Amino acid sequence: MSSTSSLRGPDPDRGLAAADLAGVRLAVENRLAQLLAAHPGVPPNLQGAVRHATLAPSKRVRPVLLVLIADPDPLMEQSALDVGCAVEMVHTASLILDDLPCMDDALMRRERPTTHLEFGQSTAILSAIALLTRAFGLIAELSLVAPQTRTRLAAVLSQAVGWDGLVAGQEIDVNGREALVGAEQVENLNWLKTGILFVAAAEMGAILAGFDEPRIDAVRRFARHFGLAFQTADDLLDRSGSAEQAGKDVGKDVDKATLVSLFGASHARLTCEEHLARADAALGESGVREEPVRALMAKLFGALPASAS
Ligand code: GRG
Questions:
Q1: Counted domains in the chain
Q2: What CA–CA distances, in Å, run from 304 to 159, 228, 259?
Q3: What is the pLDDT of residues 72-112, one digit of tens each?
Q4: In a domain, 277, yes or no
């Protein structure tokens, strides 16, 4: 792999955690760009749409989390990065589909016009299918990972995306929001739309790291609370942030049932903080190297949008 793939930070003087976080994120960006480089046989419009959606500015939370938990030795760096990129491809596919006129009808995503606005709806849908398919191909092709581990990774990702996972969350979001009445139902939607892919990413990192079941269970609990906090913060941003700050349309959820619209921003903020505290406790139990993961959480939640009600 190229020298840009090093997981060590570019500036060791900035301290190990900060350096690791920056280094992992850079390595993910570089690997994604390599994986989506020009390829014979791919129609230019389709390639353009895939690159437009995937290589746009993103926090890369899921792959970074996966690689931090996998904490790979130099031999396993590329495998961990590829699994992280597979999760990022699935996430990007979900964003492309979510933005379509028949779903959220969004104009801006990742600081760019949405993929269907730039490339048309048919190419946008096809680019999502291409990303989703490539994600599982990447996992199948991990030559340094044992076949049974590859199968396990693919199963974890497939279960997170499928008709009782991410897809179920989207179905409820698009066609069943009116029926959501209480906090429990809204949190279940947050779990399906966001938490489930966070847990899959974290679990895949733990599998690569060779954790035993109790540690994997702690990693799952950590990522579940992390993901629920993340979705709640996203809802707060939708309510009180700006499009520039978010890099995407805001105010899309004002008429939808969210913790913010049902119970107010102060309550949502409190819920977010509770999830973060629980995530932190589970992280401690998991035996994962805590410093870089805490640095990631601080980066994401350090500036939670102020209460708006
Ligand atoms: C078949 C992959 C697939 C999906 C079908 C469309 C769909 C089902 C699901 C959409 C789920 C969705 C859009 C959830 C929102 C999750 C969320 C919080 C997105 C924003 O994530 P960030 O902030 O975005 O990590 P960046 O741009 O930083 O990556």
A1: 1
A2: 31, 14, 15
A3: 998 999 999 999 999 999 999 999 999 999 999 999 999 99
A4: yes
Pocket test for ligand 1, best of 126, 166, 245 (most atoms within 8 A of CB): 166
33 domain residue, yes or no: yes
Question: Is 1 a member of any domain?
Answer: no
- Nearest CA owner, ligand 1 atom 12: 193
Determine if the pTM surpasses 0.90: yes
Q: For position 95, which CATH number holds?
A: 1.10.600.10
Query: 26 C-alpha to center of ligand 1: Å?
Result: 21
- Residue ID of nearest Cα to ligand 1 atom 11: 193
Atom 4 in ligand 1: which residue has the minimum CA distance?
94
Task: Read off the pLDDT of residues 208-228 as tens digits, 9 standing for 90 and up.
Answer: 999 999 999 999 999 999 999
Q: What does the pLDDT read at residue 13?
A: 44
Facing residues of 108 across strands?
113
Range of the domain at 131: 16-301
Which residue reads 């707060």 in tokens?
A: 236
Residue 125, helix vs strand vs coil: helix
Q: Which residue from 170, 190, 237 has its CB within 8 A of the most atoms of ligand 1, so it is best to mutate? A: 170
- Identify which of 114, 288, 291, 104 has the alpha carbon closest to the alpha carbon of residue 203: 288
Q: Is residue 178 part of a domain?
A: yes
Pocket probe for ligand 1: among 109, 126, 193, 197, the residue whose CB has the most ligand atoms within 8 Å is 193
Closest Cα to residue 127, out of 49, 74, 235, 191? Answer: 49
